[in-house]
Here is the input.
Amino acid sequence: MQRTLIRELGSKSGETVRVCGWLETLRDQKRMQFLIVRDHTGSAQVIHEKSANAELAAIIDSLTSESAVEITGKVVLNPVVKLGGLEVMVESVSVVSKADALLPLGESPSIETRLDWRFMDLRTPENLFIFKIQTAAEHAMRSFWKSEGFIEIHSPKFMGSASESGAELFEVKYFDRKAYLAQSPQFYKQMAMAAGFDRVFEVGPVFRANPSFTSRHDTEFTSVDVEISWVDSHKDVMQFEEYWLRHVLQAVKTEYGEEIKVAFGTEIVVPEIPFPRVTMAEAYEILEQMGHRIERGEKGDLDPEGERLLCQHFQEKTGHEFVFVTEYPSVVRPFYHMRPEGKPNLTKSYDLLWKGLEVTTGAQREHRYDILMEQAKEKGLSLEPIQYYLDFFRYGCPPHGGYGFGLTRMLMVMLGTKSVREVTYLYRGVNRLTP
Here is the structure.
């Protein structure tokens, strides 16, 4: 008999069906046995009258929570039942895989225990829902890119040299020499611009040897990357991103908005366009007026509290959850970020903050070979290891720019969870390489 998903039971009244899933709970009463069975589409109540079949009653009595079972029975409408107003009158039970009686996750497990037993943790409807939302968001991203003529690329994750700062590289043995895990697909996105692809995107893993234990950091995560040719400035990239983000959030809200409100207590807000924009210099002034002073020194960046307060300011002033911070100092940006004419200490770059957290870094790139070389030297980089990259710009390259967006950060902020650990399928951090 073909399997029937639990979400389909409502259309099967009076029919005999085969349901496959996990035993969530069992109530074994004097005359009746009540089972709650769950699959990825929902939960259903299954009932059995003990006197009808003593052998079957014994099988049900021996079941343990979270055992994988196949149940055959007749669907009966019963408006009293909270789970869909129906129940399945069991005819047979097959124990596909019996679970150990003592489950590893208690009622309130720590996040580390949950990660140790992630496959069990992910069985909960709430956690499964996170990845349904992720799927909807990625589908919306791709549909928007496709409508805008983008090409999808898959860049290599083994690299012979750094694509960003050398401080966050994972070094690996690559046959008879060293290689590094890619910190981003940046160089290869730009290669696509030099190759004439015009507009590209990539959704793939990146690796950062960052010894951080914060709620927003991980050592491997999924990066969403975009690069666009023939831009006039980083403002073109910002404009594209805000239209893209509005489309994605609208799609998620349309499909799951009400369910997200119930499950996570947060509402998906589809943003108005344009997003607020503020230069780094202006951001410092606003923060100082709010009583938060950042020691600029050589860093010239925002701290986490500064990001939070700046978003709070624009939320109160404009009602907007997003804010672009532009004109980052060149000292804190990579060598390939373009600098404004006559302002060598600044860059045509930006960060996008959302509800107090940085979710994007974007910029117009430097596409002029001579200037790119000079900026690399200024950063103290040896040109030989990145000569293959510099060669991209020797034979005609259009002005271009793009951005990188962390998928797990997006989900964390969107759903209001406490950590990227909760929205990552399998988290990797400083102290975690398993499961």
